[in-house]
TrEMBL record:
InterPro entries: Na+/solute_symporter_sf. The chain crosses the membrane at residues 12-41, 62-84, 90-110, 122-142, 154-172, 184-207, 219-240, 261-284. It comes from Marinomonas ushuaiensis DSM 15871. It comes from the Bacteria. The keyword NAD does not apply. Keywords: Membrane, Transmembrane, Transmembrane helix. This is Membrane protein.
Length: 302
């Protein structure tokens, strides 16, 4: 178990490959990912000071990042998609990915990299709160059918995955003896990263289905997914480089990680037939990013 924790960044990528090799198990896990998501969010928030998190969320820098993460990148990939003559379905999918909030696993990944997980959590929450606006923009401009967002579903998930864990964490910190709670958190905190393994494993199955049906199309989707992750990562790093290495890499990895599961849960079929296979293809480059980020961090130190 300790071996998995110590090498967790590498194992995230390994589980993405494993999910591709075992599509039946990957597809079987997919319906349960929302439960894993809730557990990860709760445990991650439980280990953070809520006052500090709220303070970060009220800062202008976090919302400036959110504007870049969603609105700016949506415009960039839209222009690139039109320039590359993407089909309507594929253009809708890539713009939806660009508007997607950061993965809830991001703070755990950032902590594993040794950076500020509270800042990453603030960025994750702010980009998630911006998600309904981004989805509306995407559907109005890139979806030709009737726009019928499941707002009830979105609001329920917002409460369950953000406000619920935050309230639970606040109540636990308020009523539990601090010494006992800290001892418990120190004991379990390293193992929360293990929950992240479920996401690459469970999401990549849809990409494997496409690969079995049309290998060349699957290859194109993989190249597009890799290009999207690289674009988000590199542009964020360039724009935040002057703020220091730690902030730049935190912004980069937060930007590269996209919570496509939540976006698909909210908008579903409105995102078109290309979204879910593209979301599956994203898992491989997404979970390779933390490994590359650790290597880049060591290079920059030198």
């Amino acid at each position: 178990m300790l071996f998995l924790v110590r090498h967790s960044l590498l194992f995230m990528f390994f589980f993405a490959i494993l999910g591709f090799l075992l599509p039946t198990l990957s597809l079987a896990l997919f319906p349960f990912l929302s439960i894993v998501l809730f557990c990860l969010m709760t445990l991650t928030l439980l280990g953070m000071k809520q006052n500090e998190l709220v303070k970060r969320l009220s800062s202008r820098s976090v919302w400036g990042y959110t504007f870049l993460h969603s609105i700016v990148f949506m415009g960039v990939v839209s222009l690139l998609g039109r320039w590359l003559s993407f089909s309507d379905d594929l253009l809708l999918a890539v713009v939806a990915v660009a508007g997607t909030g950061s993965l809830f696993a991001t703070p755990a990944i950032v902590r594993a990299l040794g950076f500020d997980s509270v800042q990453a959590m603030a960025m994750t929450i702010s980009t998630t709160l911006c998600l309904p606006v981004a989805i509306c923009i995407t559907l109005v401009f890139y979806q030709t059918g009737q726009v019928d967002l499941d707002w009830v579903s979105y609001l329920l998930r917002l409460v369950i995955f953000i406000f619920g864990p935050m309230l639970f964490s606040f109540l636990v910190h308020h009523f539990s003896p601090e010494e006992s709670l800290n001892r418990f958190l120190v004991r379990i905190s390293p193992y929360t990263i293990l929950l992240v393994f479920a996401f690459p494993f469970g999401l990549v199955g849809s990409f494997r289905v496409l690969f079995d049906q049309n290998p060349m199309m699957a290859l194109n989707y993989f190249l597009i997914a890799t290009g999207l992750c690289s674009l988000f990562f590199i542009l964020s790093f360039i724009l935040y480089r002057k703020k220091g290495k730690a902030i730049a890499l935190t912004a980069s990895i937060t930007s590269g990680n996209r919570n496509v599961l939540l976006t698909y849960t909210i908008a579903g079929a409105l995102l078109g037939p290309a979204f879910l296979p593209l979301a599956g293809a994203l898992q491989i480059p997404t979970y390779l990013l933390p490994v590359l980020t650790r290597w880049l961090n060591k290079v920059l130190i030198k």
